[in-house]
Amino acid sequence: METEQNVILVLKILSNQLIRYIGNLKKEISEKTDVFEGATEMHAWIVRYLVNQGDQEVFQKDIENEFDIRPSTTSKILRLMQKHALIERDYTEDDARLKRVMLTPKARALWEKTDAILRRAEAQITEGVTKEDLARFYRVIEVISKNIQ
Predict the structure, then answer these.
(1) Left, alpha or beta for 38 (phi > 0: left; psi -120 to 50: alpha)?
(2) Alpha-carbon distance 136 to 81, whole Å?
């Protein structure tokens, strides 16, 4: 008897596998450097996002939108990142209510240590997947995401 596929279950299993895989990557990074101390996986993703923004100003709202997280959650994450010296926040000249989010040298060191490992992981995860299938995967994930919002 063939088991019926269930999208929710398949995504949950994939999520569990990714969490374990990323945990192993974090161990590998930690063995090579202590710069990851105090940083979570989400911190690493935010550091990556900030690096990719270059000289463009980034604010809390940008991070909320990029990662689809609530303002209160984002505030907590950014406070912890600031506590661990991964970011600095500074008021803008244009609007004293807005605080720019900027990387510290420690965060840049974290990125330098993790970038190669994350690139290798991405290559391993997508090995054997054609560009067309990957594009289709992203389209399907986007539709599912819109359906549950």
Answers:
(1) left
(2) 35
Rounded CA gap, 51 and 44, in Å? 10
Q: SS in 3 state form for 80-95?
A: HHHHCCCEEEEECCCC
- Identify the pLDDT of residue 33: 63
Select from 139, 38, 123 the least CA-distant residue to 86: 38
Residues whose CB falls within 8 Å of the CB of residue 5, separated by 6 or more in sequence, listed in order: none
* pTM higher than 0.85: no
Between CA 13 and CA 21, with CA 19 as vertex, the angle to 5 degrees is: 100
| Residues found in the chain | 149
Rounded to the nearest 10°, the torsion over CA 47, 53, 55, 61 is -80
Instruction: Of 30, 41, 18, 43, give the one whose Cα is nearest residue 113.
Output: 30
pLDDT in tens, 108-119: 888 887 787 788
Residues 29-86 pLDDT 10s? 666 666 566 677 788 889 999 999 998 999 999 999 999 999 999 999 999 999 999 9
